[in-house]
């Protein structure tokens, strides 16, 4: 085992959140190490794949407001790295007009003055041909919604981090954490010491936290990422201005479906179900439940008639869910020099630059730029148990 190496901060996990956190720390002239268990780039966590949705359409103000800054920070990275990371397509939100999430999203968008177009049942077809709006559903467009080029974004932020002098060690799994005023981090390849540690380990968060005698109420689920073939190529393409879309659920209809225009694979539209089946991140391929695909097949044949209602490609990804689906952005309850960013619950990618900034602020002991009360660990008081 190599000799100990000292850093101001060690960030564990080079997904979108760890990569942006490391980048922010390096920007603040902190000597930073970013550790990743797999060889980069990899497809075994939650941040891989070519695309993610970016939007301001949320039920809660805090997310809509955070994304106000999010868009600026994405644009800044595009400029610094000289790459395109965002494509505006608009985000179509459809859902039961008077119940569930749809009216909440509509209210948040209007209250925060986000450019929004409310579509009536009469003009829906003019704007969105080849989609059937379900009975009783409302529809609106979050105009600045669109696509983030995820793999490209991860590479861009990691490259910028290294340009700032940051060190990435991939293929190096953290095997132990010894908390203290100086934290010791043991890996498959070495031993490191740092005054501050940030844990951004996605679905593996609790496996890492176990070394610190603490567990969060997180659940990891596998999502089948399905791509559906256009009957006529281009019908739902970015070039035809087909938007990203989400179908919000209600108590009666548990649809929770979302999609992105055909782009990454020729003539294939990505449409997924937002609810997955429980899995262990080290054995996710053994989770073979496909009941979500059956729900999607029924939805596609009913509402997106220009697609073949059988997926042509199925990939996989994981969500790390908290009980309330809000993030965890907080200090470790027992060690104030360990910061945790976890539980992004299937909607964290777009926030990457903001999360990186916030976790960096926490790690530096600064007042965070946003009110983080919704993201504190103490809200789980009744769920938490000690790992010791
Ligand atoms: C199918 C799907 C669709 C999604 N769609 C959207 C969307 O449209 N818009 C959106 O905003 N978000 C979306 N998300 C959510 C978003 O992608 C995630 O919230 C985000 O990627 C989480 O990033 P992370 O850095 O927390 O986790 P990860 O990407 O999993 O990163 C954690 C990293 O830590 C590493 N690690 C773990 N343990 C160790 C260890 N012991 N030693 C070293 N390294 C370790 C892992 O290997 C991994 O690379 C989607 C997610 C999925 C799965
Ligand atoms: O974060 C998002 O924007 C999407 C919405 C639909 C479910 C997956 N995540």
From TrEMBL:
- FAD dependent oxidoreductase domain residues: 8-362
Q: What is the catalytic activity of this protein?
A: sarcosine + O2 + H2O = formaldehyde + glycine + H2O2; L-pipecolate + O2 = L-1-piperideine-6-carboxylate + H2O2 + H(+)
A Pfam family hit: DAO
Q: What is this protein called?
A: Peroxisomal sarcosine oxidase
Listed NCBIfam families? PRK11259.1
Give the family per the record.
Answer: Belongs to the MSOX/MTOX family.
Q: Which residues form the signal peptide?
A: none
- What role does this protein play? Metabolizes sarcosine, L-pipecolic acid and L-proline.
GO biological process entries: L-lysine catabolic process to acetyl-CoA via L-pipecolate
Q: What is the lineage of its organism?
A: Eukaryota, Metazoa, Chordata, Craniata, Vertebrata
EC number(s) per UniProt? 1.5.3.1, 1.5.3.7
Instruction: Supply the alphabetized keyword list.
Output: FAD, Flavoprotein, Oxidoreductase
The record's annotation in InterPro entries points to: FAD-dep_OxRdtase, FAD/NAD-bd_sf, MTOX
Necessary cofactors: FAD
One MF annotation (Gene Ontology) recorded for this entry = L-pipecolate oxidase activity
Return the PANTHER family for the record: PEROXISOMAL SARCOSINE OXIDASE (PTHR10961)
Query: Which Gene Ontology cellular component terms are annotated?
Result: peroxisome
């Amino acid at each position: 085992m190599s000799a100990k190496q000292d850093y101001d901060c060690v960030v564990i996990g080079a997904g979108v959140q760890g990569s942006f956190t490391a980048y922010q720390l390096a920007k603040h002239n902190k000597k930073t190490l970013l550790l990743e268990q797999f060889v980069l780039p990899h497809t075994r966590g939650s941040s891989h794949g070519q695309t993610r949705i970016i939007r301001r359409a949320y039920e809660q103000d805090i997310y809509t407001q955070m994304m106000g800054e999010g868009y600026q920070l994405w644009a800044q990275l595009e400029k610094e790295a000289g790459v395109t990371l965002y494509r505006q397509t608009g985000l179509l939100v459809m859902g039961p007009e008077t119940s569930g999430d749809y009216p909440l999203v509509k209210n948040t968008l209007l209250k925060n003055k986000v450019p929004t177009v409310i579509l009536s049942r009469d003009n829906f077809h003019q704007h969105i041909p080849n989609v059937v709006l379900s009975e009783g559903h409302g529809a609106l467009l979050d105009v600045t919604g669109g696509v983030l080029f995820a793999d490209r974004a991860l590479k861009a932020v990691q490259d910028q981090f290294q340009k700032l002098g940051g060190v990435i060690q991939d293929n190096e799994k953290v095997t132990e954490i010894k908390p203290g005023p100086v934290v010791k981090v043991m890996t498959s390849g070495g031993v490191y010491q740092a005054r501050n540690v940030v844990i951004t380990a996605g679905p593996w968060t609790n496996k890492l936290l176990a070394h610190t005698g603490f567990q969060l109420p997180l659940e990891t689920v596998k999502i089948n990422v399905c791509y559906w073939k256009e009957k006529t190529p281009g019908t739902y393409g970015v070039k035809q201005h087909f938007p990203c879309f989400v179908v919000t659920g209600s108590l009666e209809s548990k649809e929770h479906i979302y999609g992105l225009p055909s782009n990454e694979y020729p003539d294939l539209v990505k449409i997924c179900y937002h609810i997955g089946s429980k899995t262990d991140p080290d054995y996710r391929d053994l989770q073979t439940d496909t009941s979500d695909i059956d729900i999607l097949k029924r939805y596609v044949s009913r509402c997106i008639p220009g697609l073949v209602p059988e997926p042509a490609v199925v990939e996989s990804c994981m969500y790390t869910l908290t009980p309330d689906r809000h993030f965890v952005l907080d200090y470790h309850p027992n060690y104030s020099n360990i910061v945790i960013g976890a539980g992004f619950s299937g909607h964290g990618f777009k926030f990457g630059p903001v999360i990186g900034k916030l976790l960096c602020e926490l790690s530096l002991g600064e007042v965070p730029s946003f009110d983080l009360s919704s993201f504190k660990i103490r809200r789980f008081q009744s769920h938490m148990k000690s790992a010791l």
